[in-house]
Amino acid sequence: MLKEFKDFIAKGNVMDMAVGIIIGAAFTAIVKSMVGDLINPFIGLFMGGVDFNNMYAVLAGDVAAGASLEAAREAGAAVFAYGAFIMAIINFLIIAFVVFMLVRYVNKVKEATAKEEEVVEAAPAGPSEVDLLTEIRDALKK
Length: 142
Fold this sequence. Notes:
Blueprint: H1 2-10, H2 12-46, E1 57-60, H3 69-74, E2 78-80, H4 82-122, H5 129-141
Antiparallel strand pairs: 1-2
Helix pairs in contact: 2-4
């Protein structure tokens, strides 16, 4: 069983997957910061300063008027946090768009590379070594 596990780990696909997961985690942190620190403030600005994260409805419990969602949860109230859900949807759409643009760019680079390889392969090979030697032999005979 240990040998099978070593064989599994040694395969290239597993290492590629591990690298992908690590880069994905780092990419997630970057995108999260972009969404939370750069894009969401603009969304709030265009929406008239609305902070979706603190939009909620109290289902049960006592919460002071105007209290933040975190304060309502700390007070032990049962809350329906629809604003956090709206922000999650907005964040998802932004992240999906960023990933789409990244994949689109990578695909364009791959296509350009494939076209360059086709051009290199399609170039005329010219005379072979045997053809050149035959021409030299025939020229020497004359």
